[in-house]
Amino acid sequence: MPHHARSTVGRRSVRRAAAGLLPFAVVAAAHIVPAATWLPRLRGRCFPGLAGAGRPDHVALTFDDGPDPRTTPCFLDALERLGVRATFFVLGEAAVRHPEVLRDTVRRGHEVAVHGWCHDRPWLPAPVRDARGVDRAARAVFDATGRYPRWYRPPYGILTSGRWAAAHRARLRPVLWTAWGRDWTADATPASVRAAIGADLRGGGTLLLHDTDRASAPGCWRAALGALPGIVADCRAAGLSVGPLSEHWTGPAEGLGTTPWHRRTGRGGGAG
Protein backbone atom coordinates (compact mmCIF):
# COMPACT_ATOMS: atom_id res chain seq x y z
CA MET A 1 0.00 0.00 0.00
CA PRO A 2 1.41 3.45 -0.88
CA HIS A 3 2.55 5.60 2.03
CA HIS A 4 -0.10 8.27 1.43
CA ALA A 5 -2.81 5.62 1.37
CA ARG A 6 -1.64 4.19 4.70
CA SER A 7 -1.69 7.71 6.17
CA THR A 8 -5.24 8.27 4.97
CA VAL A 9 -6.40 4.98 6.51
CA GLY A 10 -4.64 5.85 9.74
CA ARG A 11 -6.33 9.24 9.99
CA ARG A 12 -9.73 7.69 9.34
CA SER A 13 -9.14 5.13 12.08
CA VAL A 14 -8.23 7.87 14.54
CA ARG A 15 -11.35 9.86 13.63
CA ARG A 16 -13.56 6.80 14.05
CA ALA A 17 -12.00 6.04 17.43
CA ALA A 18 -12.48 9.64 18.54
CA ALA A 19 -16.10 9.58 17.37
CA GLY A 20 -16.66 6.39 19.33
CA LEU A 21 -15.21 7.92 22.49
CA LEU A 22 -17.23 11.14 22.25
CA PRO A 23 -20.55 9.75 23.56
CA PHE A 24 -18.74 8.17 26.51
CA ALA A 25 -16.98 11.45 27.27
CA VAL A 26 -20.29 13.33 27.20
CA VAL A 27 -21.94 10.80 29.53
CA ALA A 28 -18.96 10.82 31.88
CA ALA A 29 -18.96 14.61 32.05
CA ALA A 30 -22.69 14.75 32.72
CA HIS A 31 -22.17 12.17 35.45
CA ILE A 32 -19.33 13.81 37.35
CA VAL A 33 -19.66 17.60 36.76
CA PRO A 34 -22.44 18.03 39.38
CA ALA A 35 -20.07 16.47 41.94
CA ALA A 36 -18.16 19.77 41.92
CA THR A 37 -20.69 20.83 44.56
CA TRP A 38 -18.47 18.84 46.95
CA LEU A 39 -16.17 21.89 46.97
CA PRO A 40 -17.18 23.85 50.10
CA ARG A 41 -16.66 27.33 48.66
CA LEU A 42 -18.58 26.54 45.48
CA ARG A 43 -21.65 25.15 47.17
CA GLY A 44 -21.53 27.75 49.93
CA ARG A 45 -21.67 30.59 47.43
CA CYS A 46 -23.78 29.08 44.65
CA PHE A 47 -25.89 26.43 46.40
CA PRO A 48 -26.48 27.50 50.02
CA GLY A 49 -29.51 25.23 50.38
CA LEU A 50 -27.48 22.23 49.29
CA ALA A 51 -24.74 23.25 51.72
CA GLY A 52 -27.30 23.17 54.52
CA ALA A 53 -27.50 26.91 55.18
CA GLY A 54 -30.58 27.58 57.28
CA ARG A 55 -31.91 29.84 60.04
CA PRO A 56 -29.22 32.27 61.24
CA ASP A 57 -29.97 31.47 64.89
CA HIS A 58 -29.73 27.70 64.44
CA VAL A 59 -27.13 25.02 63.75
CA ALA A 60 -28.09 21.60 62.37
CA LEU A 61 -26.20 18.69 63.90
CA THR A 62 -25.86 15.64 61.64
CA PHE A 63 -24.14 12.26 61.78
CA ASP A 64 -23.22 9.91 58.92
CA ASP A 65 -22.59 6.18 58.31
CA GLY A 66 -24.73 4.46 60.97
CA PRO A 67 -26.57 2.75 62.40
CA ASP A 68 -23.95 0.89 64.37
CA PRO A 69 -25.10 -1.07 67.46
CA ARG A 70 -21.62 -0.70 69.00
CA THR A 71 -21.34 3.08 68.77
CA THR A 72 -24.59 4.83 67.84
CA PRO A 73 -26.14 4.25 71.31
CA CYS A 74 -23.16 6.07 72.83
CA PHE A 75 -24.00 9.14 70.76
CA LEU A 76 -27.68 8.86 71.61
CA ASP A 77 -26.81 8.79 75.32
CA ALA A 78 -24.49 11.79 74.98
CA LEU A 79 -27.08 13.80 73.06
CA GLU A 80 -29.66 12.99 75.70
CA ARG A 81 -27.37 14.29 78.42
CA LEU A 82 -26.80 17.48 76.41
CA GLY A 83 -30.50 17.95 75.66
CA VAL A 84 -29.86 18.02 71.90
CA ARG A 85 -31.58 16.29 69.00
CA ALA A 86 -29.88 15.57 65.68
CA THR A 87 -30.27 14.07 62.20
CA PHE A 88 -28.67 10.69 61.45
CA PHE A 89 -27.89 9.86 57.81
CA VAL A 90 -27.92 6.06 57.67
CA LEU A 91 -26.81 3.42 55.18
CA GLY A 92 -29.57 1.14 53.97
CA GLU A 93 -27.54 -2.06 54.25
CA ALA A 94 -26.87 -1.27 57.93
CA ALA A 95 -30.45 -0.17 58.56
CA VAL A 96 -31.88 -3.53 57.53
CA ARG A 97 -29.41 -5.32 59.84
CA HIS A 98 -30.00 -3.06 62.84
CA PRO A 99 -33.55 -1.69 62.68
CA GLU A 100 -33.72 -1.64 66.48
CA VAL A 101 -31.06 1.09 66.54
CA LEU A 102 -33.14 3.21 64.15
CA ARG A 103 -36.24 2.72 66.27
CA ASP A 104 -34.33 3.80 69.38
CA THR A 105 -32.97 6.82 67.51
CA VAL A 106 -36.47 7.99 66.60
CA ARG A 107 -37.84 7.12 70.05
CA ARG A 108 -35.30 9.50 71.56
CA GLY A 109 -36.52 12.35 69.37
CA HIS A 110 -33.96 12.34 66.56
CA GLU A 111 -34.65 12.06 62.86
CA VAL A 112 -33.30 9.50 60.41
CA ALA A 113 -32.24 10.37 56.85
CA VAL A 114 -30.73 8.51 53.88
CA HIS A 115 -26.99 8.15 53.21
CA GLY A 116 -27.42 5.66 50.37
CA TRP A 117 -27.48 1.88 50.37
CA CYS A 118 -23.74 1.36 50.88
CA HIS A 119 -20.72 3.63 51.29
CA ASP A 120 -19.43 3.45 47.72
CA ARG A 121 -17.64 5.89 45.41
CA PRO A 122 -19.46 6.62 42.13
CA TRP A 123 -16.55 6.39 39.70
CA LEU A 124 -18.72 5.30 36.76
CA PRO A 125 -22.27 6.32 35.77
CA ALA A 126 -24.82 3.90 37.25
CA PRO A 127 -28.18 5.72 37.35
CA VAL A 128 -30.26 2.55 37.74
CA ARG A 129 -28.12 1.33 40.63
CA ASP A 130 -28.25 4.77 42.25
CA ALA A 131 -32.03 4.93 41.98
CA ARG A 132 -32.49 1.44 43.39
CA GLY A 133 -30.03 2.02 46.23
CA VAL A 134 -31.58 5.29 47.41
CA ASP A 135 -35.10 3.85 47.12
CA ARG A 136 -34.12 0.70 49.06
CA ALA A 137 -32.51 2.80 51.78
CA ALA A 138 -35.58 5.02 52.10
CA ARG A 139 -37.77 1.91 52.36
CA ALA A 140 -35.49 0.48 55.05
CA VAL A 141 -35.87 3.66 57.10
CA PHE A 142 -39.64 3.61 56.68
CA ASP A 143 -39.92 -0.10 57.54
CA ALA A 144 -37.88 0.37 60.72
CA THR A 145 -39.37 3.62 61.96
CA GLY A 146 -42.74 4.09 60.26
CA ARG A 147 -41.54 7.49 59.03
CA TYR A 148 -40.48 8.30 55.51
CA PRO A 149 -37.17 10.21 55.47
CA ARG A 150 -36.82 13.81 54.26
CA TRP A 151 -33.13 14.20 53.50
CA TYR A 152 -30.39 12.60 51.43
CA ARG A 153 -26.63 12.93 51.71
CA PRO A 154 -24.53 10.84 49.32
CA PRO A 155 -21.48 8.94 50.55
CA TYR A 156 -18.37 11.14 50.54
CA GLY A 157 -20.64 14.06 49.65
CA ILE A 158 -20.21 13.23 45.95
CA LEU A 159 -23.49 14.23 44.35
CA THR A 160 -23.35 12.97 40.77
CA SER A 161 -26.15 13.43 38.24
CA GLY A 162 -27.32 9.88 38.94
CA ARG A 163 -27.51 10.55 42.65
CA TRP A 164 -29.32 13.84 42.06
CA ALA A 165 -31.89 11.98 39.97
CA ALA A 166 -32.20 9.19 42.55
CA ALA A 167 -32.91 11.69 45.32
CA HIS A 168 -35.46 13.51 43.15
CA ARG A 169 -37.20 10.24 42.32
CA ALA A 170 -37.42 9.31 46.00
CA ARG A 171 -38.56 12.87 46.89
CA LEU A 172 -35.58 13.42 49.18
CA ARG A 173 -33.83 16.76 49.54
CA PRO A 174 -30.03 16.58 49.15
CA VAL A 175 -28.17 18.28 52.02
CA LEU A 176 -24.38 18.33 52.43
CA TRP A 177 -22.70 20.45 55.14
CA THR A 178 -21.02 23.76 55.95
CA ALA A 179 -18.59 22.47 58.62
CA TRP A 180 -17.10 19.07 59.34
CA GLY A 181 -15.02 17.70 62.17
CA ARG A 182 -12.54 15.65 60.11
CA ASP A 183 -13.30 12.97 62.66
CA TRP A 184 -12.74 10.04 60.30
CA THR A 185 -8.93 10.09 60.48
CA ALA A 186 -6.71 7.92 62.64
CA ASP A 187 -5.15 10.94 64.37
CA ALA A 188 -8.44 12.72 65.18
CA THR A 189 -8.88 13.78 68.81
CA PRO A 190 -11.77 15.47 70.61
CA ALA A 191 -9.77 18.71 70.53
CA SER A 192 -9.01 18.48 66.81
CA VAL A 193 -12.63 17.69 65.95
CA ARG A 194 -13.89 20.61 68.03
CA ALA A 195 -11.32 22.95 66.45
CA ALA A 196 -12.20 21.82 62.90
CA ILE A 197 -15.90 22.45 63.51
CA GLY A 198 -15.16 25.74 65.24
CA ALA A 199 -13.17 27.06 62.29
CA ASP A 200 -16.31 27.09 60.14
CA LEU A 201 -18.99 27.40 62.81
CA ARG A 202 -21.60 29.97 61.73
CA GLY A 203 -25.25 30.59 62.43
CA GLY A 204 -27.34 28.71 59.89
CA GLY A 205 -24.67 26.06 59.40
CA THR A 206 -24.94 22.29 59.11
CA LEU A 207 -22.33 20.27 61.02
CA LEU A 208 -21.06 16.88 59.87
CA LEU A 209 -19.80 14.23 62.29
CA HIS A 210 -19.79 10.40 62.24
CA ASP A 211 -21.37 8.08 64.79
CA THR A 212 -19.38 5.04 63.66
CA ASP A 213 -16.00 4.08 62.24
CA ARG A 214 -17.55 1.72 59.68
CA ALA A 215 -16.09 3.73 56.76
CA SER A 216 -13.32 5.44 58.72
CA ALA A 217 -10.20 4.76 60.77
CA PRO A 218 -10.86 2.18 63.52
CA GLY A 219 -11.83 3.82 66.79
CA CYS A 220 -12.03 7.35 65.42
CA TRP A 221 -15.66 7.64 66.52
CA ARG A 222 -14.40 8.29 70.04
CA ALA A 223 -12.96 11.61 68.90
CA ALA A 224 -16.34 12.78 67.64
CA LEU A 225 -18.08 11.55 70.79
CA GLY A 226 -15.57 13.31 73.01
CA ALA A 227 -15.91 16.55 71.04
CA LEU A 228 -19.71 16.72 71.29
CA PRO A 229 -20.04 18.55 74.63
CA GLY A 230 -17.55 21.22 73.56
CA ILE A 231 -19.18 21.71 70.16
CA VAL A 232 -22.60 22.15 71.72
CA ALA A 233 -21.16 24.52 74.32
CA ASP A 234 -19.50 26.59 71.56
CA CYS A 235 -22.82 26.86 69.69
CA ARG A 236 -24.72 27.90 72.78
CA ALA A 237 -22.03 30.42 73.75
CA ALA A 238 -22.51 32.00 70.32
CA GLY A 239 -26.27 32.25 70.93
CA LEU A 240 -27.09 29.43 68.51
CA SER A 241 -29.61 26.67 69.10
CA VAL A 242 -28.66 23.14 68.04
CA GLY A 243 -31.05 20.63 66.53
CA PRO A 244 -32.03 18.43 63.58
CA LEU A 245 -32.47 19.51 59.98
CA SER A 246 -36.25 19.49 60.41
CA GLU A 247 -35.88 22.63 62.57
CA HIS A 248 -33.28 24.28 60.35
CA TRP A 249 -35.46 26.13 57.84
CA THR A 250 -38.15 28.71 58.50
CA GLY A 251 -40.38 27.73 55.57
CA PRO A 252 -41.58 24.37 54.25
CA ALA A 253 -38.69 22.11 53.32
CA GLU A 254 -38.27 21.51 49.61
CA GLY A 255 -38.92 18.20 48.00
CA LEU A 256 -41.11 16.73 50.70
CA GLY A 257 -44.42 15.02 50.45
CA THR A 258 -45.90 11.72 49.39
CA THR A 259 -43.45 9.78 47.24
CA PRO A 260 -44.27 7.77 44.11
CA TRP A 261 -43.53 4.66 46.18
CA HIS A 262 -46.13 5.73 48.78
CA ARG A 263 -48.69 6.22 46.03
CA ARG A 264 -47.88 2.86 44.44
CA THR A 265 -48.16 0.90 47.67
CA GLY A 266 -50.73 2.99 49.50
CA ARG A 267 -48.49 3.03 52.57
CA GLY A 268 -48.42 6.27 54.50
CA GLY A 269 -45.74 7.72 56.66
CA GLY A 270 -45.12 11.05 58.29
CA ALA A 271 -41.77 12.74 57.99
CA GLY A 272 -39.92 14.05 60.96
Question: Would you give an account of this structure?
Answer:
The chain has 272 residues and is α/β, with parallel strands linked by helices. The longest helix is centred in the first third of the chain and has 30 residues, at 3-32. The chain has one domain (43-265): Glycoside hydrolase/deacetylase (TIM Barrel). It has helices at residues 3-32, 40-46, 48-51, 72-82, 92-97, 99-107, 127-145, 161-169, 190-199, 221-237, 260-265; strands at residues 58-66, 87-90, 111-114, 151-152, 173-174, 179-180, 206-210, 241-243. The strands form 2 sheets. Strands 1, 2, 3, 6, 7 and 8 form a 6-stranded parallel β-sheet that branches. Strands 4-5 form a two-stranded parallel ribbon. The radius of gyration is 22 Å and the shape is globular. The chain starts with a helix and ends in a 7-residue tail after the last helix. Strand 6, helix 9 (190-199) and strand 7 (206-210) form a beta-alpha-beta unit. It is 47% helix and 11% strand.
